[in-house]
Fold these 2 entries.
Entry 1:
Amino acid sequence: MTSDREQVRSLDDPEIMVQTPATIYDAIPPLTPRTEREAEFYQLEDGEMFLNLGPQHPSTHGVLRVVMKIDGERIVDVDPVLGYLHRGVEKICEYGDWHHAISNTDPLEYAASMFSEALPVLAAEQLLDLEVPRRADYIRVLAWELNRISSHALFIGWLALDLGGLTPILYGFAERDEIVEMLAALTGQKLLFNYMRIGGVNGDLNHEFLSRLGDWMSRAGEHINGQAKLMNENEIFVNRTKGLGVLDRETALGLGMSGPPLRATGVPYDVRRAHPYSVYPELEFDIPTRSDGDSYARYLLHIEEIKQSLRIIDQVLHKMPDGPVMAKLPRLLRIPPNRAFAAIESPRGQYGVYAVSDGSDQPFRFRIHDPSFFNLQAVGSLSEGQVLADIMAIMASLDPIMGGIDK
Amino acid sequence: MRRTTDRRSLQHLDERLGDHLVVPAEAMGDTIELVIAPASVPAVMRALREDGDLRYELLADICGVDTGLTMQVVYHLWSPLSPDWVRVIADGLSRDDPRVPSITFLWPGAEWGEREAYDMFGIEFEGNRDLRRIYMPPDYLAFPLRKDFALADDASRGPGEGIRHMETPLPPGEVRANPVIRTSAGAGAVLGPDGELLALGAGSIALPEAPDAAEERA
């Protein structure tokens, strides 16, 4: 395919003829710009230069490559390059049956996989119009909220780490470790749980899980207050996040954002309340919002949300009904031809799925909407005019997970 | 928890956008579905977003769908004024040259969503100023999520079956076999009517050298 392509002179070394551009300098002039935006981006003004960040860079939280146009230390424009983790999950899901989709979507949001694995489950249940046993619904909420706390605890640590503070991530991981051990007692897995099932969950609560949970719940509130105390008034942390990466309401809505970055601009959009699913309407909790829209507001929201999740877990444990944890379903699941959209509030925002069934045992189309994918788009407008070192703080505060972004 | 759509918003949408709808607005569970022609996309989306009594300002999803017969672009919207989702289906794009107007003038964030649909289905969004591939490499030629892009595993369905159409589900009692036969032809391989290989797929791996050729060289 590539053999008959014209060779071009490398810009790095004019003596060399190259077929595939090896460096960013090779890539610019020989390829004619494919779009208006690309032509604009790769046009250098006097004093500007390109800088490549990633794909292997610790602060990109995965394998994200960002091409930056810089003037001195100020960022003029950025062009994120995705696809390094792309495995074609949507296509893979079309080739397995509905149950396979659970383990295929599991690794998407690898810091909180209870959420991404729930997508095929919720979609199939909506298509089948299936009533889930109440106990299963309560166990799901319990698992989701625990996973949300573990993901948020990690986010707080990551944010501080990207700003040069080592201590908070140790506390974040300590918290995450306790929850992960707990969920391992429940599901048998520490990272990719594979716990959700169409019609319920895989296995009832057990003694080890409940005793670990009770033990941790007695200390959790104290832990989160300690974490907040460590960072909320840390002068370096506040100075490097306050007023940085400011988004306003209209921009955030226009970019299709959701989750904490959207709520930090004052939009109280949380799928658990905006479009209730599972047993969330029976539970009392608030949707914290902020109006500043900066990195610091996004950080504060995560602390608030952990507190709300603790509140939910407390209620769930008191209200947990008895009964079965799985609905009766045939092993070979044929879903009548129909289409459905289901969404769930993950730690990063609205995780959606648009599933089309053609009457067979496999999804006909399985579209996954990842919140990080749309949240990451903001990095372009947020980093303009900022210094190079701050792009890490901005990116970390958007909390992207590349597994879901690249699918 | 089962929910049903709000009858009033359904009626309101039907009256407000009636001229553009190909079929009357339909309530499906907790979603209101509007099917429109590709050319009406800018007008319908603008009305949904900007009308004071609709305010569908949150773009919950944008994606492409290949039904096997036509291409669709599907938008999901949410409004703080209504608990229901609105699904807008721009139906009837030709599979040979799918084109639809871009909505980046309303939601700049649709840019990446449209890039993804372009990458996966080859749908051209007119007015998107950055329509290049987003996941696949820039020199990639195929559109992976199209139904005529067969994975190697698809050989199990038999070469004569062709594209699987959404409108013609499997006959009752028939179960599709699990993927067991694999070809080395790679993803996107083109097979002839009798299963012979016409072209290698884009993701194909070069076949290993025949053992006698390797011996000769040694």
Entry 2:
Amino acid sequence: MDNFTPWSALAGGALLGASAVILLLFAGKIAGISGIFSGLLRPRKKDFLWRLLFIGGMVLSFFIFSPNASSTLTSPSIALYIIAGLLVGIGTRLGNGCTSGHGIIGIARLSRRSVLATCIFVSSAIVVVLFR
Amino acid sequence: MLKLLSALISGLLFGMGMIISNMIEPTKVIGFLDVTRQWDPSLAFVILGALLVFAPCYHLFIKQRNFALNGDKISFSRNTNIDSKLVIGAMLFGIGWGLVGLCPGPALTSIGSGSLYLLLFIISMSIGMLLVDRVFKKITINFQNQIFDQ
């Protein structure tokens, strides 16, 4: 466990929690990234700008806090990234959520659907990494 | 106005959380999923940190409210059924997540790095989302009417 970084993980996680509280308390919206983003792809009146600002804020934070970071590739295969993207897109829409919506908000609300979904996607990801 | 401002602040905080916890680094995520080799439990601590803040705030201040401070209705999905759509969806998402170590939050947060791989991931993710929404258009509209009663 040489790479374990408990304090930065907890601190970063606390910010994700605070972000979800603010969006829900002030705007009544659920901070699930796949849900917020997919709504941008099918724009609806009065339901577009807040999504754009949320995602824009995420993108902006990168330039503020980590402008020189480059993300390390976990595979040299461009095809693998395309396949992974398709699966993530299809899976999050079918399952109505991703790590944030199910893993944080759903679990906090003790939603049966979210607890199960989180167990399933973590398990299937572990199996995939096992055979990588 | 309050809605737009809180969306921007919330988005900034979310990105900041991803960056501070280093979850924008796919190798860090793979380290969590790689339970048999050098397991790195950090991602579990990210979720724990988020739950420690969100769960008490939700149960103490939000749960009993019907409306958010901007006047919009707070409504969660009323769907409590465990169905095959949920199970298959979560499974497919997990497979995609494990293949390269990317889920929607980190991928979108670090798009500013200018990586072509990341861009292609996000484009194909968008196509996947639109594909499902096209196939399940009717179901999705019903679902959205439940969530966004505004």
